[in-house]
Write a structure and sequence with these properties.
- The protein is an alpha+beta fold.
- It contains 6 helices and 5 strands; from the N terminus they run E-H-E-E-H-E-H-H-H-H-E.
- It has helices spanning about 10-15, 40-50, 65-75, 80-90, 95-105, 105-130, and strands spanning about 5, 20-25, 35, 55-60, 135-140.
- Strands 3-2-4 form a 3-stranded antiparallel sheet, covered by helices on one side. It has a two-stranded parallel ribbon with strand order 1-5.
- A hairpin with a 5-residue loop joins strand 2 (about 20-25) and strand 3 (about 35).
- Helix 1 crosses helix 6 (about 105-130), helix 3 (about 65-75) packs antiparallel against helix 4 and helix 4 (about 80-90) runs antiparallel to helix 5.
Length: about 140
């Protein structure tokens, strides 16, 4: 069997839990993500029922995983104003929103965050793929400098 090629950005969005009113499945044959809404149409139902082993349900990662990724990123920054502001954001109500708001003030750090975030979630996804016996190449959106 040939290894699949999967777009990392699609899986990252699913792992972060976007769209709670939907379920997502990895197609083991194509590497594509199938999104099924609560009110699944007949075509999707037939596709899933026809070959259940072909589709792997993707469960979103718990929110603490995303929080840990943000905290790990802050730990990589040199001491100074930016990590202090990001740490403060993580300690407030709605830490995910506040973290992103702080990053808007620091475009270079924000770009670093995007790369760090993608690499962290690619690692999580690779482990998930390995746990489910899926051989795949993840194609990152951001390239390493």
């Amino acid at each position: 069997m040939t290894a699949l090629t999967i777009r990392a950005d699609e899986l990252i969005m699913v792992f972060e839990g976007f769209g709670p009113e939907m379920q997502h499945f990895l197609d083991r044959q194509t590497g594509e993500v199938l999104t099924v809404f609560e009110d699944m149409d007949e075509e999707d139902a037939e596709l899933l029922d026809a070959d259940p082993d072909r589709f792997l349900l993707i469960e979103p990662a718990p929110s603490y995983v995303g929080y840990e990724v943000m905290s790990d990123f802050v730990d990589t920054l040199p001491e100074g104003k930016v990590p202090r502001e990001l740490t403060s954001a993580l300690q407030q109500r709605r830490p995910f929103r506040r973290f992103k708001d702080v990053l808007l003030n620091y475009p270079t750090v924000r770009e670093d965050w995007f790369r760090f975030h993608e690499q962290a979630f690619m690692k999580i996804i690779r482990e998930w793929l390995d746990d489910h016996g899926v051989e795949a190449t993840l194609v990152p959106l951001h390239t390493q400098p």
